[in-house]
């Protein structure tokens, strides 16, 4: 009956839902973090998540970085060719990789790999009563399942991004030298000239934030999943989509914070 | 009269508009085993979950050793509930761990109740072999992962994990469902042993009347959110209560109607 008010009401509901979700997510994050300072800390789960995230994601992240560095070099060459600024390519590659491509692409890859796995694993534990069983065995499930994963995600992603940075530059180098006919020494000198500590450090700070977000969303959606296998499936989707969107949002916010002055 | 180990008063719980528990009063004396019977979906598992703190009841009190766990400070709640070992209806084994590690987890988690240092992980794994034997499984089963076990074997491992820490209070949610009759009798014997040896107090949910009489000394029946009968387990088959009679003898005619549950 209310052609004007209905859409507004729907919008209002959507906004309220978003606020409620964000609030619940923030509370979940705070509770997870609060267990960092309250022993015991479950080192085994931390280490196995660290290895799973940091080590076993290496091939995916390495290939992604290598190819994107190569593509950036090629695209810049094609785009700038007519203006005779090929020498700037090394600088463009190193800037794009350390500031953006390294952290963002590694983050998205890890969200798909590790965020999904965390959510599926914890979600399955929820719907098969394993989380309740932890509680009855005097083990706080947040402390046991969530806290070690949050910490492992936060530490593993910057490590991956260091590798991604190196391989991204290597990808650009390979294309520039092998295909575009640059001299290797000129390319390396130009790369070192454009390499800024600040860029790398901010990239790693971003990576830490992304790693935390990926683990947080994976744990949150898994922990709150309901309704059998289907519930776990949709929790996993929500974890990956949510982590990817939040990651890009935080990428913008952090870039604005560090680079916009 | 001594304080009952578990004392429940006016316990109520609804999910949305569906009332599952509606003012339950129940006393379980120290050292007794209480069998709870009742139709599928009558709220038996919900009752245990409320006592365990996995579900927040809407109203009522739950006392363990005379202390209301619902209003106690959080640390105190944990201490009171630490005494309870639970066998879940679907066993709920940790599937990221081997069977032996599951039992070792139960052993180590509950250990602080008793004297001595917490056994090391490898020591606990060794002890797990002995506990597996107690529930009729070969110690070599310890190396398998829970997904490699049959349903009945999972149940037995769940039982092994629940009793590993020798808790003061034991909850069994359908301990013998899915087991063959002989194994069912073995598990019943084991439960009785545990309760007698440890002096534990037990609450067991079961649909199996033979098993109910083997395990329990007390019995209660849950129907439509209320306890409609309480008495001796030995009287289950001739309780003089029309509902219990219908239920225990499995008759279709009687006061319990097979209305469609919402
Ligand atoms: N977390 C929950 N959310 C909503 N409803 C629930 C929840 N847990 C249980 N219920 C409902 O409560 C009722 C009682 O469930 P409960 O699991 O206690 O049954 P039960 O007596 O153990 O049955 P069974 O013998 O089949 O195991 C059911 O109708 C169920 O749908
Ligand atoms: Mg049940």
From TrEMBL, chain A:
A molecular function (GO) term: phospholipid transporter activity
One GO CC annotation: ATP-binding cassette (ABC) transporter complex
Membrane association type: Multi-pass membrane protein
Transmembrane segments: 41-74, 150-180, 200-220, 232-254
Keywords from the UniProt entry: Cell inner membrane, Cell membrane, Membrane, Transmembrane, Transmembrane helix, Transport
Chain's role: Could be part of an ABC transporter complex.
Name assigned to this protein: ABC transporter permease
Species of origin: Gluconobacter cerinus
Automatic annotation (TrEMBL), chain B:
Keyword Transport (UniProt): yes
GO molecular function: ATP binding; ATP hydrolysis activity
Domain named ABC transporter: residues: 6-249
Pfam families xrefs: ABC_tran
PROSITE patterns associated with the record: ABC_TRANSPORTER_1, ABC_TRANSPORTER_2
Keyword terms, alphabetized: ATP-binding, Nucleotide-binding, Transport
InterPro entries assigned: AAA+_ATPase, ABC_transporter-like_ATP-bd, ABC_transporter-like_CS, P-loop_NTPase
Protein name as annotated: ABC transporter ATP-binding protein
């Amino acid at each position: 009956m209310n052609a004007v008010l209905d859409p507004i009401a729907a919008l209002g509901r959507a906004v309220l839902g978003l606020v409620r979700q964000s609030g619940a997510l923030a509370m979940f994050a705070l509770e997870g973090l609060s267990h960092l300072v309250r022993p015991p800390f479950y080192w085994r789960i931390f280490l196995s998540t660290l290895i799973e995230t940091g080590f076993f994601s290496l091939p995916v992240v390495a290939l992604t970085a290598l190819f994107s560095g190569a593509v950036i070099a090629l695209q810049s060459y094609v785009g700038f060719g007519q203006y005779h600024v090929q020498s700037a390519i090394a600088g463009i590659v190193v800037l794009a990789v350390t500031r953006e491509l390294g952290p963002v692409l590694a983050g998205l890859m890890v969200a798909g790999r590790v965020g999904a796995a965390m959510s599926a694993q914890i979600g399955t534990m929820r719907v098969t009563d394993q989380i309740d069983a932890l509680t009855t065995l005097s083990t706080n499930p947040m402390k046991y399942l969530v806290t070690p994963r949050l910490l492992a995600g936060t530490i593993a992603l910057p490590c991956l991004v260091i590798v991604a940075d190196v391989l991204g530059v290597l990808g650009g180098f390979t294309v520039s030298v092998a295909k575009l006919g640059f001299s290797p020494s000129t390319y390396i000198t130009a790369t070192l000239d454009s390499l800024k500590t600040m860029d790398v450090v901010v990239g790693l700070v971003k990576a830490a934030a992304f790693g935390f977000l990926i683990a947080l969303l994976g744990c949150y959606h898994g922990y709150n999943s309901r309704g059998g296998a289907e519930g776990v499936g949709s929790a996993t989707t929500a974890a990956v989509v949510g982590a990817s969107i939040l990651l890009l949002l935080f990428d913008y916010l952090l870039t604005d914070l560090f680079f916009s002055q | 009269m001594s304080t009952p180990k578990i004392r429940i008063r006016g316990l109520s719980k609804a999910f949305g508009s569906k009332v599952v528990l509606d003012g339950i009063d129940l006393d379980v004396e120290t050292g007794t085993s209480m069998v709870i019977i009742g139709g599928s979906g009558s709220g038996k598992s919900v009752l245990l979950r409320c006592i365990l703190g996995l579900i927040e009841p809407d109203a009522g009190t739950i006392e363990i050793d005379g202390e209301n766990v619902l209003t106690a400070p959080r640390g105190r709640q944990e201490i009171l509930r630490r005494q309870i070992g639970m066998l879940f209806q679907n066993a709920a084994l940790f599937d990221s761990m081997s069977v032996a590690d599951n039992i070792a987890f139960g052993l180590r988690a509950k250990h602080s109740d008793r004297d001595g240092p917490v056994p090391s992980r490898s020591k606990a794994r060794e002890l797990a072999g002995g506990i597996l034997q107690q529930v009729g499984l070969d110690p070599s089963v310890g190396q398998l992962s829970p997904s490699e076990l049959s349903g009945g074997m999972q149940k037995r491992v769940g039982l092994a994990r629940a009793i590993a820490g020798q808790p003061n209070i034991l909850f069994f949610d359908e301990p013998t469902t899915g087991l063959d009759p002989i194994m069912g009798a073995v598990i019943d014997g084991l439960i009785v042993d545990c309760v007698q040896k440890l002096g534990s107090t037990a609450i067991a949910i079961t649909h199996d009347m033979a098993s109910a009489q083997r395990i329990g000394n007390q019995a209660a029946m849950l129907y439509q959110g209320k306890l409609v009968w309480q008495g001796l387990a030995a009287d289950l088959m001739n309780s003089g209560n029309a509902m219990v009679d219908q239920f225990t003898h499995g008759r279709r005619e009687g006061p319990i109607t097979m209305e469609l549950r919402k």
